[in-house]
Amino acid sequence: MATRSSTTARKASLLKPVMFCDFDGTITQVDVTDEILTQLANPSWREIEQEWACGSIGSRECLERQLALVDASAEELDSLIDAIPVDPSFSRFMQWIEKSNLPFYVVSDGFDYVVRSVLKRAGVNGQLRNGAHLFASSLAVEGRRVKVSFPHTANGCAHGCATCKAEIMRKLGHGRKPIIFAGDGLSDRHAVEEADIVFAKRQLLVHCRKQGIACRSFDTFADIQASLAEMLGELSPVRRTPRADQKKRAGSTLIR
Ligand SMILES: [Mg+2]
Ligand SMILES: [Zn+2]
């Protein structure tokens, strides 16, 4: 007869989960692109921000023009990135992700150069190719200039996304379930529509609640890990006390 734990394990083995995760404000505690612009760009980047905020340009054009205003060496950029605070439990979460074999992708309007650096700091080894292991805008340093490009805009994207998270999730999530997403901001509002399980904080949490989108609130990756471990049957089987065993046995004979 199947015990409860083997039933859970069997159920979990039928799942083919995949997880997508926002970067700025979710993995990092601040928006790194904003930090780069504030510290290393000509202040006129704020005027471009206004054009974007009032909807006259999309985020792709906005980032392209703003990053052209950066005047910094690779060393200056690197030391800014190294000082960016990261969720304190992200590193442990990534160890758990690797151990669980849960496919995990960062999807971000921000830049691969930054994402790679932060993931490496969190102890993620191996290749971090933009388009395979992470999906983000692309940035290369050339002298004191940065060159940007947007390899993951989508043809059919009506949102003007720099990186179309919804499109990436549709593609990579095909045939997988549940599709898990974690994020914090309004740039995630199209992504959550493609997800079965949503972890949200800050503006994304407000948005989900307003729109009646089911979500779990979180503060740190420790919260996400605890929820997922339970959900995906990764927790060690529940240790039954002898008393519970007795009750169960007694139940099968005494209770009609
Ligand atoms: Mg964000
Ligand atoms: Zn889009």
Describe the fold and architecture.
With 256 residues, the chain is an alpha/beta fold. The protein has two domains: 1-15 and 232-251, no CATH class; 18-126 and 133-231, Rossmann fold. 43% of the residues lie in helices and 14% in strands. It contains eleven helices and seven strands. The chain has helices spanning 4-14, 32-40, 45-53, 59-67, 74-82, 90-100, 112-121, 165-172, 202-211, 221-231, 242-254, and strands spanning 18-21, 104-111, 134-142, 145-149, 179-183, 197-200, 216-217. Strands 4-3-2-1-5-6-7 form a seven-stranded mixed β-sheet. Helix 6 packs parallel to helix 10 (221-231). 34% of the residues are buried. The model is unreliable at 235-256 (pLDDT under 50). Magnesium ion (MG) is lined by residues 22, 24-26, 183-185.
Compose a concise summary of this entry:
By secondary structure, this protein is α/β, with parallel strands linked by helices. It contains 11 helices and 7 strands. The chain has a 7-stranded mixed sheet with strand order 4-3-2-1-5-6-7.
What are its keywords?
Rossmann fold, 256 residues, alpha/beta, 7-stranded mixed beta sheet, binds magnesium ion, single chain, 7 strands
Summarize the main sheet: 7 strands, mixed
CATH class membership of the largest domain? Alpha Beta
Q: Please name the CATH architecture of the largest domain.
A: 3-Layer(aba) Sandwich
What's the CATH topology label of the largest domain?
Answer: Rossmann fold
Number of strands: 7
